[in-house]
Write a structure and sequence with these properties.
heterodimer, A: 115 residues, mainly beta, seven-stranded mixed sheet, four-stranded antiparallel sheet, 0% helix, 52% strand, B: 115 residues, six-stranded mixed sheet, five-stranded antiparallel sheet, globular
């Protein structure tokens, strides 16, 4: 199989606080993990790509100092939303990919609400 | 870079009818085309994919066709059932710079199957 978990599934936080989201590949080694943001009734927008052991590559328009990504092992990547504001409220989804394979397997997503 | 267009944005069919969703892409170097199904509030699930060395792939009621010359690919669902109701996304890989292999998603098609 290819199972990806994400934690937490839902988080509510106050404006100005930081939130960490974890993405784990449970039964395979994910050399590459991706972080997406999805607004209601919209498509998946790639935020950044992380390769194990190296710095993440951010898409144009995504602030790397605001969305900190760490991919310290072959099964775990984290996204930290720093100093969150209401406009950061969204559905964040990660995906993972094996080395030399194109298929991405998605996590269940994290719904973030910043008050 | 890659650009993916998906049509229609919404599609309503009667149970038992067929549904067809089309996507076009811009980069002739693209060689991998997945389709994902996303139910409300859930993760995108890979339902079928095709590589550029074949023109058609079928899995039970689902098929994907690829026309490399015209740079378009289509998802075909036959004998639709209410549980097919979801948002469907097509995708194609980015083929430039450090983002090689990352996916660009279409805007999605909301399929409604009426009993």
């Amino acid at each position: 199989g290819a199972v990806v978990s994400q934690h937490p599934s839902r988080v509510i936080c106050k404006s100005g606080t930081s939130v960490k989201i974890e993405c784990r590949s449970l039964d395979f080694q994910a050399t590459t993990m991706f972080w997406y943001r999805q607004f209601p009734k919209q498509s998946l927008m790639l935020m950044a790509t992380s390769n194990e052991g190296s710095k993440a590559t951010y898409e144009q328009g995504v602030e790397k100092d605001k969305f900190l990504i760490n991919h310290a092992s072959l099964t775990l990547s984290t996204l930290t939303v720093t100093s969150a504001h209401p406009e950061d409220s969204s559905f964040y989804i990660c995906s993972a990919r094996r080395l030399y394979q194109e298929t991405q397997y998605f996590g269940p997503g994290t719904r973030l609400l910043v008050l | 870079g890659e650009n993916v267009e998906q049509h229609p944005s919404t599609l309503s069919v009667q149970e038992g009818d067929s549904a067809v969703i089309k996507c076009t892409y811009s980069d002739s170097a693209s060689n991998y085309f997945p389709w994902y199904k996303q139910e409300l509030g859930k993760r995108p699930q890979l339902i079928i994919d095709i590589r550029s060395n074949v023109g058609e792939k079928k899995d039970q009621r689902i098929a994907v066709t690829l026309n490399k010359t015209a740079k378009h690919f289509s998802l075909h669902i036959t004998e639709t059932q209410p549980e097919d109701s979801a948002v469907y996304f097509c995708a194609a890989p980015m083929n430039y710079g450090g983002s090689q292999g990352n996916l660009i998603f279409g805007k999605g098609t909301k399929l409604s199957v009426k009993p």
